[in-house]
Amino acid sequence: MIEEIEQGMILYTQGNKIKHDVAHFLKVHQYARIIGKLEHLEKREQEILEVAAIVHDIACPMCREKYGNSAGYLQEQEGPALVKDFLKNYSLDEAFIECVAYLVGHHHTYKDVDGLDYQILLEADFLVNGDESNFTKEAIEKMKKNVFKTKTGIELLNHIFEL
């Protein structure tokens, strides 16, 4: 299932002028998969996390076209409906799709994090964004202090950014 959804997202982004989007979601998925496995998520929660990691930026191309940018709040606003439409093509139950849509609709919201899958998605996305955007050491330290909670996420952050 995961590989089919990854392939579907690659095809979904066809014609997208920003080729970085595919590499980005593949990297976020890999970090999310690693953190989720090492934090011992239950099977269904791990699957929800991985699908959410794959589709988390599904709204970026549309936001760039519609608004001229892909700010986080716009992704959160537009993403859930796109996710629901995209995932209906796969053999997933409605509750699963709703959980994924919720995560996509909150993946730039760092307060009131209510679930380990949500926490891990935030951490995985930051690991990739921090590298891709060359965040300052101060910004990374602040994120570590305020957002990172999992042992695995903190270990990866420390190693990747040499903290």
Please characterize this protein's 3D structure.
With 163 residues, the protein is mainly alpha-helical. It has one domain: Hypothetical protein af1432. Helix 2 crosses helix 7 and helix 3 crosses helix 6. The protein is globular and about 40 Å long. The termini are far apart. The model has no long low-confidence stretch (mean pLDDT 95).
Summarize this entry quickly.
Helices cover 71% and strands 0% of the residues. It is mainly alpha-helical and 163 residues long.
CATH architecture: Orthogonal Bundle
**What is the string of SSEs from the N terminus onward?**
HHHHHHHHH
Major sheet description: none
Number of helices: 9
- Total number of strands: 0
The overall average pLDDT, rounded, is: 95
The low-confidence runs, each spanning 5 or more residues with pLDDT under 50, are none
The CATH topology annotation reads as Hypothetical protein af1432
**Helix percentage range:** over 70%
Q: N-to-C terminal Cα separation, in Å?
A: 36 Å
CATH class: Mainly Alpha
Structural class, by secondary structure, is mainly alpha
Radius of gyration: 15 Å
Describe the global form: globular
| Beta-strand share of residues | under 5%
**Domain unit count:** 1
CATH superfamily: Hypothetical protein af1432
